[in-house]
Amino acid sequence: MRSITGRAKIFAEPVSGSFRDPSGHVYQLDGQIFRTVSDHFAPHFEFVESTGLLKTLARDGLVLPFEKLVKDVPALFRAPGVRYVLTVPRLPFVSFPYEWPFSALKAAAVLHLNIHLAAIERGVTLSDASAYNVQFQGPQPVFIDHVSFRRYDEGELWAGHRQFCEQFLVPLLLRALFGVSHNAWYRGTLEGIPVRDFSRLLSWRHYLSWNVFTHLGLHSWFQDTTAASSVGLEKLQPGGARLPLNTFRRILHDLHAWISRLEPADTGKTVWQDYSNTNTYSAREARIKTSFISDFVRRTRPTQLWDLGCNAGDYANVALQAGASYVVGFDCDQGALEACYARAREERLALQTLFMDVANPSPNQGWKEAERHGWHARGSADGMLALAVIHHLAITRNIPLGQVLDWLIGLAPRGIIEFVPKSDPMVQRLLCLREDIFPDYTLEFVMQRMKQHTDIVHTAALCPNGRLLIWYERR
To answer: How many helices (H) and strands (E) does the chain have?
Structure first.
């Protein structure tokens, strides 16, 4: 336990996404993260803590560790009814399930089930099954909501079953059964993809699967039935239907086994998945690029580096090897993301891989347009790589080149931007079926625009009259 003294007149504000759960809220103060435990939930928290479950899970890296604070806590947090305040480690970058690639969402689902299985062995259960209770440290998922754990009531129904299906299972099945990524649909329905809507995509053959029938078919039927009448509602009241512990345990085990086997249905190569092997770079050009990035990282030592268009993570890995503390890689190609995430897990890299279309990044949304912050509002990169990005935004997406450069420079105080000229085969491919309406897409324009806001520290030509790497420092 730790004490915070001398802060009685300093007030912490709750984070915008922490308001729904009366058991406790999350606050930020002086760069630290705190979680309150309310009076009414305190008996559950005390029981869970007495079992040693949270310490065991934290030791194994499954749950964020915490410390309890003492002295002046209610005054400090201006919250009546607060029994405890916990301090927890600050995560490098907060992400949301609609930004996770398939394998990351799958890892988060398996983590949730592993935690729940461990919990019920100690007489503890989880009050919900929200995917937002999971965050990532590099490629490793970690559970962050300590007040989701409560005493298990023998025979109680799994209150979070449908939530688990809609926030974990259905998004995974969308890709596993139909080859459609979950990201756009999930982003538009923040509470997950409704079982009822997803069930309309299924044919009778899908329902021959016992797993599909029990976890999706029955939920969909129950929603339709209760929407039309009050039939079945009495089973939800105290003393209604009961779920024996062995049955509950078997449901969790069966879901674990099923989800662990799921793989994307679209197993063919995507456009950018093998870019590192199919690009037009020579070995010499690749060495120049690697050396340039390494030098940039060694001299600037970024705490958090954003890699826009990370592909399979080659240059993110170069940055990490050169001394970057943490890299967040963004891409919109699902195959590239899967390759990058797999690499981060296998090599245990401090590399977090997220789905992001940089021309349409995650916005502020949810309640009061603030429950889930937009991409840029959640992070503070002190370094950036935008390698072979600007031609896709300026030419493919018709975004004015000046706006592209201004926006990129605004993301981080320093970074590397790669300019790919019109003579390059990749740009020629973009222009081959359309009119060239981009007279400003020139190196001269790029350098002139960048010099308005930055100092150009160094440049490196990958080949004569070819691609140019530009290292900038924002003024």
So the answer is: 20, 17
